[in-house]
Amino acid sequence: MRALANFTTAEIERAKRYASAIPPADLDPRIGALVNELIGRVADKWTMMILETLAEQGELRFTRLSEFVKGISQKMLTQTLRNMERDGLVICTVHPVVPPKVEYRLTGLGLRLGSAFCGVWVWAAENLDHVEKARQLFDGKAKAGS
Amino acid sequence: MRALANFTTAEIERAKRYASAIPPADLDPRIGALVNELIGRVADKWTMMILETLAEQGELRFTRLSEFVKGISQKMLTQTLRNMERDGLVICTVHPVVPPKVEYRLTGLGLRLGSAFCGVWVWAAENLDHVEKARQLFDGKAKAGS
DNA sequence: TCCGACACTCTCTTTCAAGTAACTATAGCA
DNA sequence: TGCTATAGTTACTTGAAAGAGAGTGTCGGA
Q1: N or C: which end of chain B has fewer CB within 10 A?
Q2: Which of B96, B95, B100, B91 is closest to B54 using CA atoms?
Q3: B100 close to B94: Cβ distance less than 8 angstroms
Q4: A19 touches chain B (CB under 8 A)
């Protein structure tokens, strides 16, 4: 698939305008689908946490990374890192020494994704209590209604 | 729609500062955990697609919404909408007529989340081909290595 | 009388993502 | 000789999410 073949600069500009306003409306729906697929891959728990950690810490070794990302198993860490590497979000540098030394850091792509997610992060941080309240209200109503 | 009702200028400024730098690092780690939980809930495929659709279309009825969000089952649509309602992202208005008429639209919270995600959306749109290339490269190397 | 529209709701089945825990290779060290 | 550290595999198990598809209630219209 040649993803962005017919995705013009004008369309990207439009996307940017929308981003500052609200709706990413009438773009080619095929692009929408591709984007959704990409977001689906990239927006999982561990990817986001690794992204965050590497954005904060810079370069990290495997074990150190696993310490920062609390609760992750070696398996999940390897798996997620491999996927991120495949998608061009991280680079892994292998030093051929023993015991092995492998360092991970974000690429430009990864860094930019990190700051894109920052908007969501900020939203979440600022609206945590709104959401909390909404939930209580909702649950209260549900209980009252039953 | 009075989206930005209780979103102060100060908060917006703070958000912008966070977004332009990189790490939302040094906040209370408990907040980090909560935020991650919230993002985990909010960042799933259907939620994002519904968010997008409602941001574009404004107010929609159940069946119409299910037409826009391609591939979603009634079950998933109901389930996702209930969760979004619970989190204060959508409001559902029930008109007590027969046949039933229920309309869904985003709240201010939902709209703001939508535009927060927009950054990710734009990232995805702009970097689809980078990711595609990275994958081909990676898969090529993997094949060559094996 | 039966159908269709609408917005669900329920059950059943399958799938797949994620966790656990043990195993690998290698060199230096005691 | 066995132990440790490092960066992973591999096999097995489990739980939760998702899809399919039928059922529900109500009313107006043919």
Answers
A1: C
A2: B91
A3: yes
A4: yes
Question: B11: buried, middle or exposed (CB in 10 Å: 19+, 13-18, 0-12)?
Answer: middle
Full domain range(s) for residue A78: 45-145
Domain identity same for A35 and A101: no
Q: What CATH number corresponds to the domain at position A129?
A: 1.10.10.10
Q: Which whole number is the average pLDDT over B20-39?
A: 58
pTM of the model: 0.78
Amino acid present at B89:
L
> Over its length of 146 residues, how does chain A's per-residue pLDDT go in tens digits?
222 222 333 333 444 344 433 344 444 555 666 677 777 778 788 998 899 899 999 999 999 999 999 999 999 999 999 999 999 999 999 999 989 999 999 999 999 998 888 888 888 888 988 999 999 999 988 767 54
Residues A38 and A49 reside in one and the same domain: no
> Cβ of A23 and B114 within 8 Å?
yes
Rounded-to-integer distance, Cα A81 and Cα A84, Å: 5
Buried b (16+ CB within 10 A) or exposed e, A40-63: eebbebbbbbbbbbbbebeebebe
Cα distance between the two ends of chain B: 57
Residue appearing with tokens 């070696």: A74
Distance from the Cα of A45 to chain B's closest Cα (Å) equals 6
Structural domains of chain A, count: 2
% chain B with pLDDT above 70 = 75
Give contacts of A123 with chain B, Cβ < 8 Å: 15, 112-113, 116
